[in-house]
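Subject: complex prediction, re-run

Hi both,

The earlier run crashed halfway through, so I resubmitted it with identical inputs.
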Amino acid sequence: MQKYSVFSLIKNAFKGHKDWEVAWKDPTPKTEYDVIIIGGGGHGLATAYYLAKEHNITNVAIVEKGWIGGGNVGRNTTILRSNYMHDQNGLFYELGMDLWRNMSQELNFNVMYSPRGIINLAHSDAQMNVYSRRGNSMRLNGIDAVLLGREEVKKIVPMLDFSENVRFPIFGGLMQPSGGTARHDAVAWGYARQADSMGVDIIQHCEVTGFDVINGKIKGIKTSRGNIKAKKIGLCVAGSTSILAEMLNMTLPIETHLLQACVSEPIKPILDHVVTFGAGHFYCSQSDKGEMVMGGDLDGYNSYAQRGNLPTLQHVLTEGIAMFPFLSKLKMLRTWGGIMDMSMDGSPIIDKTHIEGLYLNCGWCYGGFKATPASGWTFAHTIAQDKVHKLNAGYSLNRFHTGHLIDEKGLGTKTWIS
Amino acid sequence: MLHIKCPYCGMRSQNEFAYGGDASVTRPELNKEILDSEWDSFVYLRKSLKGKHLELWHHISGCRQWFKVQRDTSTHEIFKTLKPGESI
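This time it finished cleanly. Structure:
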């Protein structure tokens, strides 16, 4: 594999950029692999990469119905954080933060990791108490957390609405200084390029149409490009999980919902943190191009449409303007939607299933992007060792049956509960 | 924006309604011995169909009645709305 560096850039510039190798090949599917990963999004690519790197399993295929980078890995708002209270979440996402820190070097691809800090605003004394409890839990798990008072928030993000007569005055906030953003396309491309170089076949435009299950064991998949055999198969298909589950006669604690995001026209640097509203669901950061990147609530009804409706966007931006009044002066550049695998407790599932050799990775709700490396790392472990790692032991499929829900926020599909 | 025909009030915009989830789910019968798995499946498990989906909506800013909607989850087309006791 060609190494990317400033020297290779200069060398290729003199050759008119004609000698760059393709970043990943376009192979024809073989008849059999050791492991097939269904879904070539961030999590699928990361899983294949860690299977090869950590477990030396390289006879792997990634089967993707669209193209690399076309799903949720290219539709999210690029936020990274591990500001969770519960141990299962905190430790899992903190593994992710460790992997994010070295990702550009490890993948030889600049993912533009930017630990600019994430601030959750608090709008009441009660919320400050809740945040201080969460901050303490985070610090006990080795995650950085700082409780900020109103004046401290004002110093860091002066353009927030600090006037007296507002519906939700700012009392302070909880900051995770190591939270931030990364360039989402680069994450997909970086993992794809490295996985490909280690022997993983990335098969695009190949839709799964059925499964071969004999006596409770997985034998292979049927696809639009022929049948492929494998003894181990991992599902990493986010919003399409329920469609594949139906082919397997499984019913999951998952509903597919629509989540929208939008960016404004680019403006000069004004916001160098990620900031979230504490009295509703709205978050905002500024991209390197200067666009304000914003998102919020689900559209609220089951949907596979990948495009949203205006009422939700209007609701979300109303919250945005309450927080940052200057947003009302900006024009929207783009809005888009993605389909989310909303689990019933708002926490993900990374587990084995009742079918031998079939592994499940789903339920990422609003927060799949930040989990990309940790999800790939633990899912690769689960597939390679045929047992869950202690970091994803809490994300079991049967927790809904046993009652061991991880109710970090208790949101899940029913956003109106909050 | 969705336009939903409330069976009681007629055509209204989506803003007046709240979503209530899959209408095909039935609560286990009262006072009957049930397995944990039946309760589990009532509370948590959903088919989440792609295509025609029968679901509950609540006319929360209108007559406040619950009713059923048959809607396509990939095109958002609404085929039919029904009162709670009616079936397709």
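The longest helix of chain B spans residues 36-43.

- K.
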